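Sample pair:
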Amino acid sequence: MGRHTFFRWASVLLQASVLLQGSVLLQACAPRPVVTAFRLEGYPDQLATRVMPNLESAPLRELVVPPVWIPAGGQRLELLLDRARLPVFPGRWAVRVLLRPNRTVTLAVAGPAQALRQFDVLGRGPLRRLETVRGDGELPAFVRFDTASEPEPLFVILDVDAPVFLSRIEELPFPSPLSSTTPPASPTSAKPVNFAALALVGMPPPRSLKAGYRFGTSPRYAFLRRDAVEALRVAFRQVRKRWGREPLVMGDASQWNGERPATDRHLPRHISHQGGRDVDLGLPGTDGDSSLRHRCKLVLAPPDRATCEPDSVSGLDAPRLAYLLALLIEGPTPSGRFIAEGSKRPGPSAPVELIFADAAFIEAVRKALPELRKKKWIHDEALDALADDRVLRASPWHTDHVHIRFAGEPALVHDGLRDIRYSP
């Protein structure tokens, strides 16, 4: 190598060294990005850290900067208690979610409708059997649960192909100490029914067959006023305990923001079902199946309304349906015991205002009531209420379900739910 060649290469190396040192110095002086997450490369052991700006408060449409990946050891994406939502970029993630004690919690994933590939919740203790319900697989997706007095953090497993937000919406436990109102008296009792102005919450996914129900709709359309949710859960459990058959099916209630189901798709499915007061329940069948399916032969009655042909009811488990409706009207009793004196029973957590069903099903229910009363499975209040049209009313288009409407004011919608939008 000649002298000139040697000095030329030495100069190049010196310039490269200076540039490298300057680059390192600039990186040291620059603001450090927030290390907020780890990616689940090979579930559940292979981890890597995601480095990105703190974009927690940024709107979803701004989260388009590609993330930078660097190897690291065990850093985690966490939804801490001081924030309500967290951006999640495309990829497969495990998110550690911290929980407050004694809360009703809704976890929501919001973003482009087709972005979701996986949404699972891994918990311990009372939450170890918590499962998300896929529904139609589109966003937004929700799962609701209640925390214990000393809750452990849980992990949310997310696999998304577009930027999304994970939100945690918290409510005080039921019954709520919020300001209360006094609605009209229960249709089956002369005494007024007092209840708090309760929040709109989702029906929690059943953790076992003992829960007595399953979803027949997407969880995003299974939101009700909280006292109505508790009334349904207690009734479903008692029906399962008494009859021991397949779970009952819960159909449409309200959308997560209190609107009618499928309003987010601009295809609202009902003329009611606003404010968390209405819910459709599948008809229990003698074969154990309670899917939302027709239990009679359909005919068109003027003016073009679908109804059941007289004497065409088939496969309806009328005693089980009558027992469910009675439980909703008069409320549960400890272990389902018969307590003749109404003042000694706890009563319903949410009074029922109206029940809509096809006239053929109403006839079958009323035929089943005397035997249930003879067995002391129901009380006189439910027997009287279901015997006429004060509560139980015939309505067309109710050939595959029964419609329950609870009394009282519409539910209060948390801002965290109201802000969630459907994004095609």
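The radius of gyration is 28 Å.
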